[in-house]
């Protein structure tokens, strides 16, 4: 009996993940380089691939799923599945699973690091000192513990970011569509506008979908406090980038910290890169050694368990109806 083939949409995955897949009786194939719909259809239409370990955001569209003979599961190396047509996967009997919580600590730390750097104006001081300037005795930065941090989206990453901000002394406001119990000391803001009006720092942790695409645009920037800070470690299209450039250039916003962009990789001529009050990082919030191992390990366990007719962690399964149909069959 031939081994099930696991297609990894990248040049590599952690050694531990590879070992788990091979010990589980699978064969691994890697897919380096740029990946588009045509490459995916070509790779999956042969019927050889039983599972996709999804790194990055290649387009798993309806056309891809319709052409994918023999595919049983897509396991995301992380949590964001905005490039996956889940309805098409479900229609074709393909499970879609995420590595729930695997990168939450890493992304939360990254978000907090950017918050602290911008509140204390570290990019400005670094830049000016390299140009020969010394401190201005009449210029003072803010205290992070005097700030109100608004968290939009309260999944595992949003919650851990909120806890870190609270531990550093900030007041925390949370806006989420889901009914969750907040940790002691945090306040819920039912309306997005209410959070924007009250927060000194707004940190985005919501998934990208049709409800959140363009969630923060010109109207929302107008509601934010003058001198507020925006942090986006979620997905780039949640923010209207031209409106963000205007808000930053006009001084409406004091600063922004961005790990994600509307188009990735972004054009080097992106006007955000020319603004002195912006920290940009290349979608690396989750790129720590610990997070990489955990994401790969959970994705591998999701795959091996599913191929054995089991579910590694029910919370990771985004289309449970596929599992229900499999049990009835």
Describe this structure in words.
The chain has helices at 15-23, 37-44, 62-67, 86-91, 104-119, 122-130, 156-167, 192-198, 218-223, 241-250, 289-307, 320-328; strands at 5-8, 27-30, 49-54, 73-76, 95-97, 148-152, 171-175, 187-188, 201-204, 228-232, 253-258, 278-280. With 329 residues, it is α/β, with parallel strands linked by helices. The chain has 2 domains: 5-102 and 289-328, NAD(P)-binding Rossmann-like Domain (Rossmann fold, 3-Layer(aba) Sandwich), CATH 3.40.50.720; 104-280, 3-Layer(aba) Sandwich (Rossmann fold), CATH 3.40.50.720. It is elongated, with a radius of gyration of 22 Å. The mean pLDDT is 94.
User: What's the gyration radius in Å?
Assistant: 22 Å
Overall CATH architecture of the largest domain = 3-Layer(aba) Sandwich
Q: Can you tell me the number of structural domains?
A: 2
Mean pLDDT: 94
> Residue ranges: pLDDT <50 for 5 or more in a row?
none
- The succession of helices and strands, N to C, reads EHEHEHEHEHHEHEEHEHEHEEHH
Distance, first to last CA? 22 Å
Biggest sheet: strands, sense, closure? 7 strands, parallel
Count up the helices: 12
Percent of residues in helical segments?
25-40%
What is the general shape? Answer: elongated
**CATH fold descriptor of the largest domain:** Rossmann fold
| CATH-assigned homologous superfamily of the largest domain | NAD(P)-binding Rossmann-like Domain
The fraction of residues assigned to DSSP E strands is 15-25%
Structural class, by secondary structure, is alpha/beta
Strand line-up of the largest beta sheet: 8-7-6-9-10-11-12
Broad CATH class of the largest domain = Alpha Beta
How many extended strands? 12
């Amino acid at each position: 009996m031939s081994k099930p083939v696991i297609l990894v949409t990248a040049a590599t995955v952690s050694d531990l993940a590879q070992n788990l897949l091979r010990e589980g009786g699978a064969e691994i194939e890697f897919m380096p380089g740029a990946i588009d719909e045509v490459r995916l259809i070509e790779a999956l239409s042969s019927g050889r691939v039983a599972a996709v370990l999804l790194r990055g955001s290649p387009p798993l569209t309806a056309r891809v799923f319709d052409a994918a003979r023999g595919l049983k599961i897509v396991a995301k190396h992380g949590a964001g599945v905005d490039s996956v047509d889940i309805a098409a996967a479900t229609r074709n009997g393909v499970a879609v699973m995420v590595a729930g919580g695997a990168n939450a600590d890493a992304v939360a730390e990254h978000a907090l690091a950017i918050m602290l750097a911008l509140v204390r104006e570290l990019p400005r001081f670094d830049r000016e000192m390299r140009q020969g300037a010394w401190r201005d005795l009449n210029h003072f930065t803010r205290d992070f513990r005097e700030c109100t941090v608004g968290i939009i989206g309260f999944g595992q990453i949003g919650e851990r970011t909120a806890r870190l901000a609270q531990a550093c002394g900030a007041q925390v406001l949370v806006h989420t569509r889901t009914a969750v119990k907040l940790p002691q000391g945090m306040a819920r803001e039912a309306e997005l506008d209410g959070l924007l009006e009250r927060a000194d720092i707004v940190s985005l942790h919501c998934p990208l979908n049709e409800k959140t695409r363009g969630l923060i645009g010109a109207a929302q920037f107008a509601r934010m406090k003058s001198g507020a800070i925006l942090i986006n470690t979620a997905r780039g299209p949640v923010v209207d980038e031209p409106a963000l450039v205007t808000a930053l250039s006009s001084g409406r916003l004091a600063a922004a910290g961005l790990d994600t962009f509307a188009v990735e990789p972004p054009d080097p001529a992106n006007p955000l890169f020319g603004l002195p009050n912006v920290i940009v990082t290349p979608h690396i919030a989750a790129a720590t050694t610990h997070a990489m191992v955990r994401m790969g390990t959970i994705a591998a366990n999701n795959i091996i368990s599913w191929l054995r007719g089991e579910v590694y962690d029910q919370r990771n399964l985004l289309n449970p109806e596929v599992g229900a149909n499999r049990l009835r069959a």
